């Protein structure tokens, strides 16, 4: 199973924001994770659309995680961002083996097992020791929590 790059970045954004409940700007996230600002803005927008982050405008604004995100499973985040795509596409163009091939169902079973493992991991668990302090060191200054 391979996550698309934006899902990988999104998980790192959620982890970074979840470490202390503070807010970061898109620029700070971009710098901390070494991702182009434009791409980071798109990732934050997708996370906001799914409710995993909240944003506030203005001088004291930024991006933060609502308290409910801490108890969200990583599997839920991955499903929301990746969708229900299968590992292989047997239909476009149609594979000549699809009538008698067992590969598609085996890969689907493996994908479901992969997501089931991620369902057992929460965002809170991702930012627990020893990861939390390392994440905090990535960004020097943060603003307060979201209202």
Automatic annotation (TrEMBL):
PROSITE patterns: HTH_RRF2_2
Residues spanning the membrane: none
Keyword DNA-binding among UniProt keywords: yes
Keywords, ordered alphabetically: DNA-binding
Protein name, per record: BadM/Rrf2 family transcriptional regulator
Cofactor(s) named in the record: [2Fe-2S] cluster
GO molecular function: DNA binding; DNA-binding transcription factor activity
Short name of any one Pfam family annotated for the protein: Rrf2
Species of provenance: Saccharothrix saharensis
NCBIfam families: rrf2_super (TIGR00738)
CC annotations in GO: cytosol
């Amino acid at each position: 199973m391979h996550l698309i790059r934006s899902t990988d970045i999104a998980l790192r954004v959620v982890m970074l924001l979840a470490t202390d409940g503070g807010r970061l700007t898109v620029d700070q996230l971009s710098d901390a994770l070494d991702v182009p600002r434009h791409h980071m803005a798109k990732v934050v927008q997708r996370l906001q659309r799914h409710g995993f982050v909240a944003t506030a405008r203005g001088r004291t604004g930024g991006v933060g995680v609502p308290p409910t995100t801490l108890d969200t499973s990583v599997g839920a985040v991955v499903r929301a961002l990746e969708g229900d795509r299968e590992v292989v596409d047997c239909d476009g163009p149609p594979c000549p083996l699809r009538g008698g091939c067992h590969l598609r169902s085996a890969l689907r079973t493996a994908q479901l097992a992969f997501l089931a493992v991620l369902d057992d991991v929460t965002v809170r668990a991702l930012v627990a020791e020893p990861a939390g302090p390392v994440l905090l060191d990535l960004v020097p200054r943060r603003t307060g929590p979201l209202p």
